[in-house]
Design goal:
The structure holds two protein chains of two kinds. By secondary structure, chain A is an alpha/beta fold. Chain A is 48% helix and 14% strand. Chain A has nine helices and seven strands, in the order E-H-E-H-E-H-E-H-E-H-H-E-H-H-H-E. Chain A is globular. Chain B has one domain (4-172): NAD(P)-binding Rossmann-like Domain (Rossmann fold), CATH 3.40.50. The chains are: A alpha/beta, B alpha/beta. Chains A and B meet through helix 4, helix 5 and helix 6 of A and helix 2, helix 3 and helix 4 of B.
Chain lengths: 263, 179
């Protein structure tokens, strides 16, 4: 297998200052992709970009607020201005997810952040990246191929008893991916989702607070462990970003060790 | 007894006139504006996202809350199948449809212990004014059945005491188009 499957390509990964986004950024960079670490705060994004460079990769941080369409557009414009192209757009950033009862949920407290950073931001990322992804797909095979990857969740398929409106926002992202797969297929651009369960900082913090939680998750997971943000989730993203997935579009790959088998 | 039907437009009006139940029930109709927000993603503006996705989705949430507050035992949410199938140049409509449909599952999980069932009935996109000639084929095959589709009986059943152990489901009522 070619060890530099993304050589020459440029990716933007939102929410790459930590967690799943960081894992995806690191994995893409390990295959010679130039990665833009799009983070809301430079304090988180810059260290990730620096660490990727320290390990021989190419990465730059661009501060981006995905809830703001102008900020997303500026990120894409700056990426293309500095690096000449954009081949892969990964929208991972997400805020919210406070447990709530649906009957008491408040739009301002329990919905809007998730709607803006999940649903609206997916549309912003698609809108801004679209012309560049199409251009990438016009390149000869092996040198380009536009990819939009949205990070969703198993709960976007099966709902959630704890965070119901989180699952609503994640479901919307899957529908956006299916629609854009239809819309962009004629241009050769693929659009897919990943539904991960992995050791993000939030989950690892929860494990520290409640060690039984890790045992519970591992017990219900056929593969018996919590996923790794780089080796597990990042590798799924790499597949979807690479030429290997050129005929896969509109799909959701659940990467959770087999906990959810309902697709 | 009569059923609380939340929503405007022809689907809500039809169900308001036809649906009855032997238990307290409510129907929430997702308000899809099939004429607005149709187009390539690069032409999508924020006002359209707000009008076609955000405001209708907030109405679905409010509708579920109103139904719960009314103390009903059965809740049915009407959605278009375009959320499951996706639709060419209809990303915003599809986002609304699927967000509403999966909210049903979450509500079913939360409210099941209280004896409340929550289900979705999915209708063909054209029932909501979405032009299938633009959005593309919902399925790989034509509709299996001929004739007019009327979802009233399906909604009636999900609203009834007979459907007491069915929750979190989506019943597609489109004459066998989306499978």
């Amino acid at each position: 297998m070619d060890v530099s499957r993304l050589d020459g390509r440029v990716a933007v990964v939102t929410g790459a200052g930590q967690g799943v986004g960081e894992g995806i950024a690191r994995r893409l960079a390990s295959e010679a992709c130039l990665v833009v670490v799009a983070a809301r705060r430079a304090e988180t994004g810059e260290p990730v970009a620096e660490s990727i460079r320290d390990h021989g990769g190419r990465a730059e941080c661009i501060v981006t607020d995905v809830a703001d369409g102008d900020s997303v557009q500026a990120c894409v414009d700056e990426t293309v201005r500095r690096f000449g192209r954009l081949d892969i757009m990964v929208h991972n950033a997400f805020m919210g997810g406070i447990p709530h009862k649906l009957e008491n949920a408040r739009i301002d407290k329990h919905w809007m952040k998730m709607s803006r950073t999940g649903v609206w931001a997916s549309l912003f990322c698609a809108r801004s990246a679209m012309p560049h992804l199409v251009e990438s797909s016009r390149r000869p095979r092996g040198t380009g191929g536009g990819r939009l990857i949205l990070i969703t969740s198993p709960s976007g398929v099966e709902g959630s008893a704890n965070i119901p409106l989180y699952s609503s926002a994640k479901a919307a992202q899957r529908a956006i991916a299916k629609s854009l797969a239809r819309e962009w297929g004629p241009h050769g651009v693929t659009v897919n989702c990943i539904g991960p369960v992995a050791g993000s900082p939030a989950l690892l913090t929860a494990f520290e607070r409640d060690p039984a939680l890790r045992d519970a998750i591992e017990a219900r997971t056929p593969l018996g462990r919590v996923g790794d943000i780089t080796g597990d989730v990042g590798s799924v993203a790499l597949f979807l970003a690479s030429d290997d997935s050129a005929y896969v579009t509109g799909q959701t790959i659940i990467c959770d060790g087999g906990s959810f088998l309902g697709l | 007894m009569s059923v609380l039907v939340l929503g405007e437009g022809p689907i809500a009006r039809h169900l308001r006139a036809t649906v009855v139940s032997d238990v307290a029930a409510a129907v929430v109709v997702t308000e899809v504006d099939g004429a607005r927000g149709v187009g390539p993603i690069e032409e999508l503006d924020d006002a359209t996202i707000d009008a076609v996705f955000e405001q209708p989705m907030q109405k679905v949430i409010a509708g579920l809350q109103q139904a719960h507050a009314a103390g009903v035992e059965r809740i049915v949410v009407i959605v278009p199948t375009i959320g499951m199938s996706g639709g060419d140049r209809h990303a915003v409509h599809a986002a609304l449809a699927e967000a509403a449909r999966i909210t049903v599952k979450s509500a079913a999980r939360q409210w099941g212990p209280d004896g409340i069932t929550v289900n979705a009935v999915a209708l063909a996109p054209e029932e909501f004014g979405v032009d299938p000639a633009v959005s593309g084929p919902v399925a790989i095959a034509p509709r299996a059945m001929r004739g007019t589709v009327d979802a009233s009986n399906t909604v009636n059943w999900l609203c009834s005491g007979a459907a007491a152990h069915v929750t979190g489901q989506t019943v597609v009522c489109d004459g066998g188009l989306w499978m």
